[in-house]
Amino acid sequence: MMSLPKIYTCFLESVYKLLSSIYSQLWLLLVPPLFVFFFIKNMCLTEVLGKCFGLKDDDHRNKQIIRVKGTVVLMKKNKLDLTDYGASLLDRVHELFGNGVCLQLISSDNADKDNEMRGKVGKEAYLEEWVNKITSLTAGLSEFHVTFEWDESIGIPGAFFIKNFHHSEFFLKTLILEDVPGSGPIHFVCNSWIYPSKHYKYPRIFFSNQSYLTSNTPEALLKYREDELKILRGDGAGELQSWDRVYDYALYNDLGTDRPILGNSTELPYPRRGRTGRKPDKKDPNYETRLFILNLNIYIPRDEKFSQLKFSDFLAYAVKALGQVVRPEIKAIFDKTPNEFDSFDDVLHLYEGYQGRPVNQTGDSHLLSSNWSLNLEFIKELFRSDGEKPLKFPKPEVIQANEFAWRTDEEFGREMLAGVNPVSIRLLQEFPPTSKLDTTLYGDHTSSITKEHIGKNLNGITVNEALEKNKLFILDHHDELIPYLNRINATGTKTYATRTILYLQEDGTLKPLAIELSLVHPDGEIHGAINKVYSPVQEGVEGSIWQLAKAYAAVNDSGVHQLISHWLYTHAVIEPFVIATNRQLSVLHPIFKLLQPHFRDTMHINALARHILINAGGFVERTVFPEKYAMELSATIYKGWNFTEQSLPQNLLKRGIAVQDPSKPHGLRLLIEDYPYAVDGLEIWSAIEKWVYEYCSFYYPTDDLIQGDTELQSWWEDLRTKGHSDLKDEPWWPKMQTLSELTQSCTIIIWIASALHAAVNFGMYAYAGYLPNRPTVSRRFMPEIGDPEYVELETNPDAVFLKTITSQLQTLLGISLIEALSKHSADEIYLGQRDCPDYWTKDATPLDAFKRFGEKLVHIENKILEMNNAEEYKNRFGPVKIPYTLLCPYPLPSDPLGLTGRGIPNSTSL
Fold first, then answer.
1. Which residue range or ranges hold the Lipoxygenase domain (predicted)?
2. Which listed residue, of 153, 350, 464, 599, carries a Cα 20 to 30 Å from 264's Cα?
3. CB–CB of 298/611 below 8 Å?
4. Do residues 730 and 641 touch, judged by C-beta distance below 8 A?
5. 33 membership: H or E segment, kind and range
């Protein structure tokens, strides 16, 4: 007698064979009964009799019914890159029993008086060929046909309902009506996940690609437009589920109960994030419950999540990067100095292609040839797709041409203009540098740098002359760190607040003159700071001290880059714009169509960041010097954020890097002419600004249209008073009353989401992938005469340097994170590109303007490449031989996927 498992197995095999047989013999077995079933199910008795006996009711005698053919492009549910076979099978079963995908066209011309003047709705039509159409085995798109019976007297379709009666969701990309009488083809760009209808109170609706201001929306579509926005705003209650489409605001109360809540506070203000509605934490109900660390199913509106392809890339990058930590950490366990690099050679061995001294074949290295290590490499190889060597990091560009050029003073200064944080340097306008800290709380923080410290390196001119000629610049991270410095140094960090003064030489390069390292006075903050000043020395112990001083300055700059320039000023500040746009601007609104591509994936990457990167104990706290005070520090910096100063021209003027000059192409004259970020950035900024002006002026030829646009005004009010509510009363907010204000605001939004983010993100691995160049943590204070470390500087200065900066584990985790964040995904859409380039809008004038925008970007890219090849622009290449390509709009066709160091994605998506 067969056992129960065997019976169960046989039963499943029989069911499978039966279903296979049914599927292969579908025409013989199922088509006739299903035809009758659908025929009767979808037609009333009068229609059945009419079809059978040639009868027509009075209504049909007066209507002219035409058949409108449509093509639907969609992607079935899948898991990562593979089709979800279980969902696909169940969907086919649902289809067989009459539960298909139903569409109904909606009139844009004729309103139904009995339905609050909403457009009349046509007959139901179902997607064809779902059961017998073979679709892609991977996450690919498929075409299906649908035939509508459309009453010409209703008018032109302007929208459609769709109801999914299947078991599973699918991604609806487009619907194209091929030939509508009186209109021709009509395009519906959807790009949305459609869940089973049981999850929705109302059927999903999509509108055609015709743009309408609120005031000129056809009456038949107006109520539908309003209904959709109400759904997207939600009711502010309950835990949101994956099928919900609610855009709402929440505080940063999801980072962990042992971190302060950010937002709704004068002390710790913050931009708002997307609401999830998760239950309050049991420990403190003011906080939101956190998910298990490996649970990445964080609520954001489904359409804001990564595509299947991008999520696959993201996970693959993460797995590869973390896999690269394993080998050196195993080796470190048996090292005589655990968790320390003993030499730069040890660091360089992390990277593929390094041809330094061979690894010692005795002792601890013997463990690395064990079978376990080989198995790890084998597992790693299974996941590889980019040709890199298993368990090795790719060699960062900063050490490709020369492994020690990063240590030169010229490169140290150049990276402030063309590195990963080119947005902090400013003109020094008074000497000595002063502080803006409240003296009643922090005492006197005037710099201790004197004319004697810097005068000897000014190439023959005095300090006053250098100031008058705008030759002195400063990288100042003093004031922002002093209020937190004692608390930060009570952790594992031992660091300083730094000021770095640089001199602009005749060849356009920056020469560092002095670095000031400051600690809070030991008698208390009210007593000011204890400062020490270091000047450039190239040899001996003093030369090693100078290298350490530059490292402390780099630690400050790395932390400010990651927490402020990158996270706060691109990721965090843009999320409220994403939310407000979806809450208040209909998809029919031209400004929604303008901005929506620049919000792609932002909410998802931000949610993942809160889950694993910036949360309590996350990657950032483990690898960046403020540790547990990282996010709190960023909140204090947000107090000074000014939306209008995010305009590149205004930012350059504020930092004193540029002065107004109407004779110059962009109305600005750069004081550092060879400033790659500013030079290229102004070209990109101007191209965006021109495109936005041409687009907005088409829809708003007069300012009164802006003032009277209720959706536009609600959008700006929502953004200001809810999304950035802690700064809602600041006087710098544009009033959104004129075309100039609208153009500038949209240009700033696009600039932040695209070019600014590209400039501070995609060069991270090239420069910071080699941590000695951009250390993120310092673990010891500067050696003093008499210290053992000072003596060691004479015999082994590299060891002292490496024991002072980021530890081995921190380095490995940091490099892993930086590598993953620096890579482009396979489905990236770049500035000047659209998902549906030919029909994202029906209006010809904006389409033509967008085409010119793309052509301008190509011209800018060619100009950038020409400058990179010109010898006179020393800051575009530098001692490390890295051309500045971070603001090249597009990667080269020959570039491998990932670490291209060029290309401006439309959105802040990594």
1. 211-910
2. 599
3. yes
4. no
5. helix 31-41
DSSP conformational letter for 303: G
Neighbours of 515 (CB within 10 A): 27
User: For residues 842 and 677, what is the distance between their CA atoms, to the nearest angstrom?
Assistant: 36
Reference 495, options 462, 470, 520; nearest CA is: 520
SS3 78: strand
Query: What's the token pair of residue 431?
Result: 């000497």
Question: What are 609's two structure tokens?
Answer: 């960041």
Residue 63: what pLDDT?
A: 58
3 state SS of 302: helix
Q: Give the C-alpha distances (Å, rounded to integers) separating 610 from 48, 274, 493.
A: 58, 11, 23
Rounded distance between C-alpha atoms, residue 618 and residue 563, angstroms: 13
Long-range CB pairs of 383-387, under 8 A, 24+ apart, other chains included: 383/316, 383/319, 383/320, 383/323, 384/320, 385/316, 386/896, 386/897, 386/898, 387/896
Task: Please report how the helices 31-41 and 45-53 are oriented relative to each other, as an axis angle in degrees rounded to 10.
Answer: 120
pLDDT at 292 over 70: yes
Residue 631: per-residue pLDDT: 98
| Alpha-carbon distances, residue 299 vs 245, 263, 791 (angstroms) | 10, 20, 56
Q: Is the pLDDT of residue 139 over 90?
A: no
* DSSP track, 330-349: HHHHTSSSTT---SHHHHHT
* Whether the Cβ atoms of residue 551 and residue 775 lie closer than 8 Å to each other: yes
User: Is the pLDDT at 564 greater than 70, yes or no?
Assistant: yes
Q: Please say whether the beta carbons of 633 and 275 come within 8 A.
A: no
Count each helix (H run) and each strand (E run) in the chain, helices first: 32, 20
Nearest to 743 by CA among 694, 707, 699, 692: 692
Separation of alpha carbons 146 and 71, rounded Å: 6
Would you give the DSSP letter of residue 190?
Answer: E
List, as one string, the DSSP characters of 468-535.
HTT-EEEEE-STTTHHHHHHHHTTT----EEEEEEEE-TTS-EEEEEEEEEEE-TT-GGG-EEEEEE-
Which residue type is seen at 874? K
Of the candidates 226, 227, 221, 216, the residue with the CA atom closest to the CA atom of residue 119 = 221
Residue 718: per-residue pLDDT: 98
pLDDT digits (tens, 9 = 90+) for 635-654: 999 999 999 999 999 999 99
d(CA 822, CA 905): 12
**Residues facing 658 on adjacent strands:** 670
Distances from the Cα of 202 to the Cα of 205, 307, 319, angstroms: 9, 25, 40
Q: Locate tokens 């009277």: which residue?
A: 708
Return the amino acid letter for 413. Answer: G
Instruction: Report pLDDT digits (tens) over 833-865.
Output: 999 999 999 999 999 999 999 999 999 999 999
601 neighbors 907 (Cβ within 8 angstroms): yes
pLDDT at 373: 32
Identify which has the larger pLDDT, 468 or 366.
Answer: 468
pLDDT of residue 3: 40
DSSP structure class, residue 173: E
Burial of 862 (0-12, 13-18, 19+ CB in 10 A): exposed
Report the C-alpha gap between 771 and 766 in whole angstroms: 11
Reported for 184-190, long-range contacts at CB under 8 A and 24+ positions apart, including other chains, are 186/156, 186/157, 187/836, 187/839, 187/842, 188/159, 188/160, 189/835, 189/836, 189/839, 189/840
Q: Which domains does the chain have, with CATH numbers?
A: 65-233 (2.60.60.20), 245-355+376-405+568-658+683-771+806-909 (1.20.245.10), 424-559 (3.10.450.60)
Query: What is the pLDDT at residue 384?
Result: 44
pLDDT band at 117 (very low <50, low <70, confident <90, very high): very high
Give which of 553, 468, 485, 544 is closest to 514, Cα–Cα.
Answer: 553
Grouping H, G, I as helix, E, B as strand and the rest as coil, residue 670 is strand
